[in-house]
From TrEMBL:
Record InterPro entries: PhaF_PhaI (IPR008769)
Lineage summary: Bacteria, Pseudomonadati, Pseudomonadota, Gammaproteobacteria, Aeromonadales
The protein, known as: Phosphohistidine phosphatase
Spans annotated as Disordered: 128-159
Organism from which the protein derives: Aeromonas enteropelogenes
Signal peptide bounds: none
Ranges of compositional bias, category Low complexity: 130-139
A Pfam family recorded for this sequence: Phasin
């Protein structure tokens, strides 16, 4: 452009030079306005195209991130399960080494104590049932026999008495064991 102006300047007069400069300036101005208008038209289209590409990229990125999060969550869930199992096993071993009975042990003792209580109650009921029957029956009038040896109890009565005593002993032992278990549990557990 500058060369063109110099070439024209050399061959043309000052008036023509001013006219040529004015015309060139006008063309530059119009070219600038055209470029600006074109940029506005194309700029909106380009902006819309960029927004669409950004939305597509965001959707792909979100899907990929969700897949990776799901994979990590699966691995984490398995790890937490194993960690929980290991923790429970170690706590159970520590409790066992301290001699603290477990809930299972306490339940077992409680069940056994209930069974023994029932047996003792049955024996007591049976014993009470025999006592009135024996008292209700009048003894025949006999002459007292000479004392040779102490009177022996019937074997069934002896057995019942022995079982009742054993059940009472077991019941008291079970109650003591439960008291000890509760005391240990209270001293160890918060």
């Amino acid at each position: 452009m500058a060369k063109k102006l110099k070439a024209l300047a050399g061959s043309v007069t000052d008036n023509q030079l001013a006219s040529t400069i004015k015309e060139s300036t006008q063309q530059i101005w119009l070219a600038g306005l055209g470029a600006y208008s074109k940029a506005q038209e194309e700029g909106g289209k380009i902006f819309d195209a960029l927004v669409q590409e950004g939305e597509a990229l965001q959707a792909k990125t979100r899907q990929s991130a969700d897949e990776k999060i799901a994979a990590v969550a699966d691995k984490t869930a398995g790890t937490w399960g194993r960690l929980e199992q290991v923790f429970e096993e170690r706590v159970a071993r520590a409790v066992a080494s301290l001699g603290i009975p477990t809930r299972k042990d306490i339940d077992k003792l409680s069940k056994r104590m209930a069974e023994l209580t029932e047996v003792v109650q049955q024996l007591l009921d049976a014993q009470e049932g025999e006592a009135p029957a024996a008292e209700a029956k009048p003894a025949p009038a006999k002459k007292p026999a000479p004392r040779k040896a102490p009177v022996k109890k019937a074997p069934v009565a002896k057995a019942k008495e022995a079982v009742a005593e054993e059940a009472a002993d077991l019941l008291s032992a079970a109650e003591e064991a439960v008291k000890e278990v509760k005391a240990k549990a209270e001293s160890v557990l918060p």
